Amino acid sequence: MPEGYLPIFLFMVVAILFPIVAIVAARLIRPGNPFATKLEAYECGIKAASDSRGRYTVRFYIIAILFVIFDVETVFLYPWAVRYKQLGWFGVTEVAVFLAILIVGYIWAFKKGALEWV
Amino acid sequence: MTSPYPILAILGILVVVMTLAAGLIWLERRLLALWQDRYGPNRVGPFGLLQVLADMIKIFFKEDWIPPFADKVVFVIAPAIIVGTVLMSFAVLPIAPGIIVSDLNIGLLFILGMSSIGVYSVVLAGWASDNKYSLLGGLRAAAQMLSYEVFMGLALMGVVLLAGSFQLSEIVSAQRRVWFVVPQFAGFILFLIAGVAETRRLPFDLPEAESELIAGFHSEYSGMKFGLFFVGEYLGVILISSLITILFFGGWMGPVLPPIIWFVLKMMFFICFFILLRAALPRPRFDQLMSWGWKVMLPLALANLLITGAVALAWG
User: What ipTM was assigned to the predicted interfaces of this complex?
Assistant: First the structure.
C-alpha cells in the first residue's frame, strides 16, 4: 500500500469543496435579475445567426494526435530518467535508438506539413 | 516524510496560497502601473492594499448568470476544475523541511498529471459557453496547453535524471552542492517558457487574447465563476514560480535566513518576473506560438535530455 495518500485525499476534499463553497455562497448573496438582452451571447453587432458548435479547423485534431504520440514517448522516458545510473550506457543507447525512431516520425510529420498552422 | 500534522499543513497551505493569490491581483496591478508610469490601485487602504478585499466583496455580490444556450452543468463545473486541480498540485510542494502536505515519491508526476486535468477546464468552459469566441479560445487553449505540456515534461526529465527521483524533497536535497539551474540551464529556459504557456499568461495568453477573442474561453462567465478562473490563473502563477524555485533554484536552501523565507523570496522573484513578462512583451500570433513549440522547443528538449544523460553518465 503506497503511503502518504491520506493527506492527499484530505487535501483533495478541501480543494474540491473550495470552488463549490465559493459558487454556492456567491449564489446565496448575489442578486439575480436576468432579462432577455442580458442573456444574449456576448458578441457585438447583430444577433448570432447560428449555433457556434459548427466546424473548426482540422489543425486542432492533428495537434491532438501529435500530443498523444509525443506524450506517450515522454512517459516511456520517465522510468529511464529515474534509473539511468543503474542502466548505464546501455540505457542511454536504448533511449537514443528509441528517440531516433521517433525523430524519423517527427521529420515525416514535419515534411507532411503537420506542424504548419496555415 | 509527511507532515506530522497533516490537517494543520493542509489548512495552512490553503490559507497562505489563497491569500497570496488574492494579494497577487493587487501586486500585479501595482507593478504593471509602475512599469507603465501610472499609479495603479492606491485609494483603498494603505498603498491600495485593501483593493483585494474590495474586489472580493464585489465579486461575491456580482450577478452571475448562466446563458440559456449554454450547457449548464459543464458551464458550472469548468471553473471549479481549474481551481481544484491547481490547488491539488500544492499538496506535494515542499515549502520548507516539514512544511508539506504529503511528500509523495511521484510528486513531480502528480503535478504534471494535475496540470493535464487542468486542460479540461478551459476546453469545457469554451465548449459549454456556446459562443464562437469562447469555442475558439477553448480550442486554442487546448492546443497550446497540450503542446507545451510535452516540452514541460521533457524539460523536467533532465532534473529527474540528475536527482534520480520524482520526489520533490529529494530533488531539493540533490541541489545541496549546486543548483540545478547551472547544469540544466537549457531545461530551466524550456520549463520557464512552457510554464508561461501552461498558465496562459502573457505573452502566451492567446486563448483569451482580449483584442481578438474578447476574453476567449471565459467570455460568457460572470461573477463568482469568472472569479474562480481569475484566481485559478494566479494560483497557476504561484505554482509555476514555486516549481521553478524547487526544481532549479534549490528550493528552501540558502544561507543565514530560515528556509521558508528563502523559499518565499525566490518564489516572489519569479512571480515578479512573470508580471514583468506581461508588461514587457507583445503577444505572438497563434501559428507562431504553435510552430515555435513544435519546431524549436521539442527538438531542444529532446537534445537536452540526451546530452544530460550522456554527460551525467560520463561524469560519474
Answer: 0.83
